[in-house]
Amino acid sequence: MRCGLFVPVFILILVQVELYGFGDCQPPKVVKIAALFTFDSVIGRSAKTAIEAAIYDVNNDPRILEGIRLNLIMKDLNCSAFTGAIEAVFQVIEEEVVAIIGPQPSSIARMVSFIANGLQVPLVSFAATDPTLSSLEYSYFLRTR
Predict the structure, then answer these.
(1) Where is the protein localized (predicted)?
(2) In the sheet that 99-101 helps form, which strands lie side by side, from edge to edge?
(3) Please, are residues 73 and 47 in contact by the beta-carbon 8 Å criterion?
(4) Where are the beta strands (DSSP E) in 10-143?
(5) pTM
(6) What single-letter DSSP state applies at residue 39?
(7) Could you check whether the bond before residue 28 is cis, i.e. omega within 30 degrees of 0?
(8) Which residues contact 38 (CB under 8 A, 6 or more apart)?
C-alpha cells in the first residue's frame, strides 16, 4: 500500500511539532488527529486500515511517544462534496485536533483547506490531485505523492 509508510512517519512528525511548542510545559497525555475520508471507496478503505494500523503501532510502542497517546477521530464524508465535508470538518475542529488527514477529492480538499488554513490546522492529502491546491494559497495544506 502506497500510504502505508507515509502515515506513521507523518503522524510522528505532527506529534513532534505539537510537542515542540510546549517548551518547558508538561506535554499533553493525548494528541488528537482527524481523518476525513469516504470510507466506502477503494482509497478510503485502504487509508482507514493504514491509519488505524499506524495509530495502533505508535500507541503500543512506549519508546515512540513516551507516555503520549494518539487519539484518531475518523469521519466518513459519505461522498458529499459539501454537507458531509463541512459537517465533518467542524466536528473534528471541535475536538481540538492538531492535524487532518484526507480528504480524497480535490474539490472537497479545497473546501476543507480553506477552513483548516483559517484555523491553522495542517491538512495532509495523498489523494487530492488538483495542481491549484498549492501551499502558496493554502499554507497549511500538504500534498504527498
Answers:
(1) Membrane
(2) 69-76, 30-37, 99-101, 123-125, 141-143
(3) no
(4) 30-37, 69-76, 99-101, 123-125, 141-143
(5) 0.79
(6) T
(7) no
(8) 44, 76, 77, 78, 79, 103, 104
All three cell numbers of 70, joined, read 494518539
pLDDT (0 to 100) of residue 112: 86
Q: Are the CB atoms for 47 and 54 separated by under 8 Å? A: no
Nearby residues of 87 by Cβ (< 8 Å), 6 or more positions away: none
Contact 95, 70 (CB under 8 A): no
Say if residue 103 is preceded by a cis peptide, omega within 30 of 0.
yes
Q: Rounded to whole angstroms, how far apart are CA atoms 106 and 41?
A: 15
Task: Judge whether 68 and 15 are in contact, CB under 8 Å.
Answer: yes
Q: pLDDT under 50 in the chain at which residues?
A: 1-5
pLDDT of amino acid 73: 93
> In whole angstroms, what is the distance from residue 136 CA to residue 93 CA?
23
Q: How far apart are CA 92 and CA 94, in angstroms?
A: 5
